[in-house]
Amino acid sequence: MAKNKEVELQKYLEKKRRQKSRDEIMNKIAELSRNRTNNGISLIKKKIKMKRVKEDESFEKKLFLHESSDANEESSFLDEKTGIYELYDYNGLVSDVKHNEIPDENVSCPFVAEVLEESKSYNEKQSILNLNESFRLSRLTNRLEKIQNQRKEFDIMYEETEIVSQIKYNLITFVQGETGCGKTTQVSQFLYENGFATDKMIVLTQPRRFSAISISNRINYEANEDISGYKIKYENNIKAHTKIKVVTEGVLFREIQLDFLLKQYSVVILDEVHERSTNMDILIGLLSRIVKIRFAQKNPLRLVLMSATTNPEHFRPVLTNFQLINLTGKRFPVNVFFESKIPEDYIDCAYKKILAILQAEQKYSSNKKSKSGEINVPAEIENTYKASVLVFLTSKEDIYTLKSRLDAFNEQIIVLPLHSGLSKSDQDRVYETFPVRKIVLATNIAETSVTINDIVFVIDCGLEKRKIADENVVMYRTSFICKSSAKQRMGRAGRTGPGICYRLYSGDAFEMFSDHSFPQILMEPFDASLLQLKNMGIKNIFGFPFIDQPSEIAIEDSVRFLESLGALDQNGNITKLGRKMCSYPIKPRYARFLVVNFNVLPKLFSKLVVIVSILSCGFELKRNESTKGYFTGAKSDLIVFLKLYIEYLKTKNKKLLISKVGISADKFEEIRKMASYLLQIAKVDIDFDTDFELTCEDEKEICCCLYYLFADQLAINTGSLYIFNDDEFYISHDSIETEQQNIVFDYIVCGSRRSYVKNITVVPSSLFK
User: Which residue has the higher pLDDT, 20 or 717?
Assistant: First the structure.
């Protein structure tokens, strides 16, 4: 029967290949006027409001959502205007550029668009039994006895047979289990031991680099063997014998572009699918088709999705046939306490809650309060120094504000920050034990895939800082989390014993939270993802199987922007330049900047790569008494940052420089890693320690390059402020002196009262003569 189906499928595919392909929707877009202009910040704010959940408006009024006034947070976003490089004749340059273009055979399967389309109409009945696969058991025999005992505490251990069986006999499986049930670390080990990694690897995705590294290390620790490795943006420790590969979502998306059918994998596990990042949504759409193609080729790829809080049925329109596994294991109880009302200062409220925990006696009945009157500690809780505290805050600034207040108690506690800007060694400290009570102050990085076993108390501020972006504009809003995030935060306690979660908001406020987080793909520019999909041969973006499709306006704006860069032609097809741009995993604007200047300015190319790395990594220098000398006489913020980076490379006393400028060594090293990564892609070899000098002539040429990089974002000086697209903007205190000259800028930050342009470069008046 399977053979007949294969014959029928081949006949159907052949018939379709003979038909003349028409992309009706894209043709309509091509006929539309491409001269739409930017209506300014007011239009952007209207679009942003339309994207928010329906109940958000009343929710904002009742719960006093605060719009961030911090105008110094960085990110870069692209403008939608066309013809942005009119001041510079790039067309003649691009035709002569000889760059390291991705070979056609690496652009993925040459029939990607076609097979994606055909896979929609092929509904297999998952007759995997007919494939006669062989699974050779690979039991891990070197596990330590204490690890065996620890694993037995997970209820998921008693579901191994069911989980393996369902994944074996179904192409797509959805595993839903409570936070802390062990699915992240155990499912991949189940599959390895049951023969799924005999000839191929098992790949497990994580939303963050930190969790990818820690989970890979945890799997190796439990196995007592080196079976797992990780691959993140700048690091790759995968070895020839690696069987379980842990990667970030972006890494897997890039691998699909190079090998569409993911031939090296037998199972793809997508973890934390409820976070709904843009990469996750695109991966689900692609993999929903890839598994069918691999099945038709009698080389099946299993897809496993895992989450603790999302509704699996929301994925049903894309993943039409999947088997649901509900893990309902027992957990230690976690008592949840709400505030009677929302505090005006949640940092102060969290501080008082921590003090109350420290002052409380070791045991309380459930009806008693601590002496401070701030907390309830149920009788079953052993409130000793071994009972660690995890506090969820909104940002690094909040973390260090609270830490500075808690440092007065350094003899009783150890306070550990946890955020994405820390080095791996500093992040790993949260897993250590200490002879005093451990207080972990974290951003939402600790919400998922981070298991700190000794956490007993969780203090949840109920807030998060969200980035809302549209083209070259970014807004930061501190707003309430969703119910699923609150559940995830609560689940950080109760791992090894009963726990407590103190929510710094009222029960009535909680009932007004949205159920799930808003998909990222609807909240940010789509041009980078669109270009990568075009590079894979997917012409009809409107036909792509999105869980939540970006709006028609968002797709049209992205198409126009990419056309203005020369990455797409007037028919919406990717150009030779566009393919070259795709070799760099950065924003299309920056990728074009590197592609064009690779041969035009070879001597400056490495410095331009560092500037792009600075832009991509969110580098920020505060202007104060210690740093004002760096800004003197500079014509661009980015030249200031570049000079500081070069000084960091050459100075012997790096600790003194770091202390002076207030920028961590990790940020400098992140820029170095990214610059090295981009230079490796361009096949340029350079020693940053010896080959990196910056002359006055270099500065002038770099500034000239920056004029044309941001030529579409020219702000005109009117004396006290700047005008761009009929809107008023200010220069940040942390920027160079402009001497009332016109400027170009990287992006705009909208604060509560004023909007600021960031990463500015002064434009010489001679350019306007």
Answer: 717
CATH topology of domain 90-105+526-768: Four Helix Bundle (Hemerythrin (Met), subunit A) (1.20.120)
Question: Which has more pLDDT, 330 or 79?
Answer: 330
Lowest mean pLDDT among 25-39, 275-289, 306-320, 424-438: 25-39
Q: Which tokens go with 108? A: 């993925």
Of 77, 6, 56, the C-alpha closest to 712 is 77
pLDDT at 136: 77
Which candidate, 630, 603, 632, places its Cα nearest to that of 701?
603
Query: For the residues of 376-424, what is the DSSP string, one character each?
Result: B--TT---STTSEEEEE-SSHHHHHHHHHHHGGGTTTEEEEEE-TTS-H
Look up tokens 């992140």; give the residue.
670
Cα 397 to its chain centre, rounded Å, is 20
> Residue 556 is encoded by which pair of tokens?
């049209």
Length of the chain: 769
Task: Determine the pLDDT at residue 90.
Answer: 33
106-327 has which fold? Answer: Rossmann fold (3.40.50)
Q: How many whole angstroms separate alpha carbon 372 and alpha carbon 393?
A: 23
Identify the burial level of 576 via C-beta atoms within 10 angstroms of its C-beta, where 0-12 means exposed, 13-18 middle and 19 or more buried.
Answer: middle
- Joined tokens for residue 131: 């494939």
Judge contact between 281 and 250, C-beta under 8 A. no
- Report in angstroms the alpha-carbon separations of 429 from 397, 407, 410, 432, 434: 20, 17, 16, 5, 10
d(CA 464, CA 478): 6
In whole angstroms, give the CA distance from residue 201 to residue 113: 26
| Model confidence pLDDT, tens digit, residues 402-433 | 999 999 887 889 999 998 878 778 888 999 99
Does residue 170 contact residue 292 with C-beta atoms inside 8 Å? no
Which comes out higher in pLDDT, residue 607 or 423? 607
The helix (run of H) or strand (run of E) holding residue 67 is strand 66-67
Residue pointed to by tokens 């989980």: 163
| Cα distance between residue 222 and residue 225, in whole Å | 8
Cα 354 to the center of its chain, rounded Å: 31
> What CA–CA distance (Å, rounded) separates 757 from 134?
60
Name the least confident of 53-67, 195-209, 222-236, 583-597.
53-67
pTM score, whole prediction: 0.78
Tokens standing for residue 603: 């001597």
Tokens standing for 641? 């940052």
**106-327 has the same fold as 90-105+526-768:** no
| 307 phi/psi in degrees, rounded to 5 | -165, 160
In one letter, which amino acid is 340? S
Helix axes 696-709, 637-650, angle to 10 degrees: 130
Amino acid at 695: T
- Domain borders along the chain are 90-105+526-768, 106-327, 334-518
- Measure the CA–CA gap between 409 and 351, rounded to whole angstroms: 12
- In tens, the pLDDT along 27-62 reads 433 343 333 334 444 444 444 444 443 344 444 334
Fold of 334-518: Rossmann fold (3.40.50)
Q: Which two tokens stand for residue 160?
A: 């191994």
Measure the CA–CA gap between 329 and 315, rounded to whole angstroms. Answer: 24
Q: Which residues contact 422 (CB under 8 A, 6 or more apart)?
A: 666
Beta bridge partners of 743: 715, 762
d(CA 598, CA 604): 9
